[in-house]
Amino acid sequence: MPVQTRRRPTSSDPTEKPIRVESILGPNGGSGRTIKTGRRAPRRKDPLWARLTLIMGAVLMVSSGVAIVGSKAVINQATSSIEQDNLLGGAGKTEAEGGKDLKGPIDMLLLGVDVRGSWDPEDVRADTIIVLHIPASHDQAYLVSIPRDTEVQVPPLKRANWSGGAAKINSAFEIGARNGGSWAGGAQQMAATIKNLTGISFDGAAIIDFGGFRKVIDALGSVHLCVDQEVESYHMKLVDGKPMWNADAKKTGKPMKPVVHKVGCRDMEGWEALDYSRQRYGLKNGDYDRQQHQQQLIKAMAKKAMEDGAATNPLKLNSLMKAAGETLVLDTGSANVPDFVFTLRGVAANDMVMLRTNDGSFNSTTQGEEEREQLKPISLEMFKAVKEDRLAEFVAANPNVISNKK
């Protein structure tokens, strides 16, 4: 497999433009706790970068430089106190793949965790696994979700007493977090597992508490989502018309009514948008549909923030920063945060293309008493296209990989 290049592709025609998926598509709550990373870090004076990342939809750090900041000096001042952690381990890009160079394609690993039920850093699985790919042109972003039940070979890890072998991909995070590895160790093991599976090395990574989105959405007021199939919440009930987690609802001793997400497009409050994006039971394609709904939520958050002027209004931005809290751990690899933000200032929410694996439907095999997903050849080809920075061409030739969620 060719080594991924990190330079902008050259062309004999200076007027030639890179292929854009737009041509295919047409013109057109949070806990507030500090995430545990396995080591004591200095108090963050102003976690602006982490908060901006959540504000723009957790992965749209790529939008942060569009209008929020005007120069690298301003970015440097705003992000000077940000602490980062090593989330990539040996899965970061080598010098041969570009290393510190941000001029070429950029790939980030985004891991979503739900810590509502457990704060033990050694007992958390990453059920949301997204590869964010930005081509060398730095003017577009792709989101590719990996099914949580995908069977993979998780590499050996002596500290975790893991000799290596087949497992569901979401368990790679838990294996890496064992015996003091904490969340940073979990992310490193996940990154190594995905590199083994796809060949992709990463420029950066982020661990996101999806529960933290609720406060951000509430600060935005709402987000506009379209429900494509009716589903009853597996996690929440209504008590006296108020949404509550199942366990809390039972404690009240009062009558409970199901939370049902009806088909149709509407503005959703934070609790409703988050709950809808977390459902997989009762959906036709289970976790595949959930992946697309989470991608849909991320894009909707970024779009709402920019439409409301939150990206350019300091007062609105400050309100969102306060709402977001410390619900993210970030690693920008060898690059410093200001350079990373400034490099990606040309990507906006409308340039985000959501892609699906396995045609968005099950491709299961049975292992003992559990089912595991197998990536189809076309999905493996898609990840190869990510590695070789020819994803636009791949999508143009295989438009069925584009999610139809709006």
Describe the structure.
The chain is of the alpha+beta class. The protein has 14 helices and 15 strands. Helix 4 crosses helix 12, helix 7 crosses helix 9 and helix 9 runs antiparallel to helix 10. The chain is globular, with a radius of gyration of 20 Å. It comes from Micromonospora pisi. Keywords: Membrane, Transmembrane, Transmembrane helix. This is LytR family transcriptional attenuator.
How are strands sequenced across the largest beta sheet?
12-6-1-2-3-13
Return the string of H and E elements.
HHHHEEEEEHHEHEEEHEEHHHEHEEEHH
Q: What is the radius of gyration?
A: 20 Å
Helical content band: 25-40%
Rough outline: globular
Which parts are unreliable, with pLDDT below 50 for 5 consecutive residues or more?
1-70, 77-83
Query: If you average the pLDDT, what whole number results?
Result: 75
Distance between the termini: 34 Å
Q: How many strands, what sense, and barrel or not for the largest sheet?
A: 6 strands, mixed
Reported CATH architecture of the domain at 29-221 and 311-401: 3-Layer(aba) Sandwich
CATH class category label of the domain at 29-221 and 311-401: Alpha Beta
- Return the structural class: alpha+beta
Number of helices: 14
Number of strands: 15
CATH level-four homologous superfamily name of the domain at 29-221 and 311-401? LCP protein
The share of residues in extended strands comes to 15-25%
CATH fold-level label of the domain at 29-221 and 311-401: Aminopeptidase
Task: Please provide a brief summary of the model.
Belongs to the LytR/CpsA/Psr (LCP) family. With 406 residues, the chain is α+β, with helices and mostly antiparallel strands. The protein has helices at 22-25, 48-55, 64-67, 72-79, 171-177, 182-198, 213-220, 246-252, 270-278, 286-307, 314-324, 337-343, 377-387, 391-397; strands at residues 106-113, 126-134, 141-145, 151-154, 165-168, 204-209, 223-227, 231-239, 242-245, 257-261, 264-268, 328-331, 352-355, 364-367, 370-373.
